[in-house]
Amino acid sequence: MHILLSNDDGYLAPGLKVLADSLAEYVQLTVVAPDRNRSAASNSLTLETPIRARLAENGFYKVDGTPTDCVHLGLTGLLDAEPDMVISGPNAGPNMGDDVLYSGTVAAATEGRYLGLPAIALSMCSFEPEHYESAARAAQLLIEQLKKHPLAEDSILNVNIPDLPWGEIKGFQATRLGARHRSEGVIKQTDPRGEAIYWVGPPGEEQDAGEGTDFYATRQGFISVTPLQIDLTRYDSLQNLHQWLDTI
Ligand code: MN
Phi and psi (nearest 5°) for 100? Predict the structure, then answer.
């Protein structure tokens, strides 16, 4: 089995190394990752400039592009042979609820799925994780399971792992995405020339975080596994919209 591994925290992210070392023990592995932190890059592709992919000292390809660029390159020309699966992460920080729309970690997995491969996005529930080995253990079990029992072609698995030693994790739980409140405001500062600059503020607090959600499962010590589909159509509004448009 050949796995393409990517992330959005960059090719030097400590979590990437932990997972790569673990995966390399039982699969053929190619790592293609951004050359810097590209968190929240979402599904963006670089179209206006060329992209360089260089083999780094650590044996990973570093790419001056987005996570989506990395997987796109990996599956459409950079690698000699097509991999069997795409894994993204483990991200330093959760990707739950609304986060998945912004996440570069989830986007790298999405790109794998678009290009026809099973894909898993892994995120740690802490921004300074101490237990990446738990993500590596979870990945191994999910990869084995996917090999034996493939999932629907139009979905990816969004996995969030509590930052706990493996022995303290209670198991896997199937979840739906929760939701956050509206984001905090931007943070305004002044640059040395007196011009206003802005930093995007933190995401909102959890709003829909009850039983069954990714937020709830991880807070209880479970690994949250959410099946994501890319079709954002709101089917239960279609009929109503037909009628609404007829009255124009
Ligand atoms: Mn990230």
Answer: -65, -25
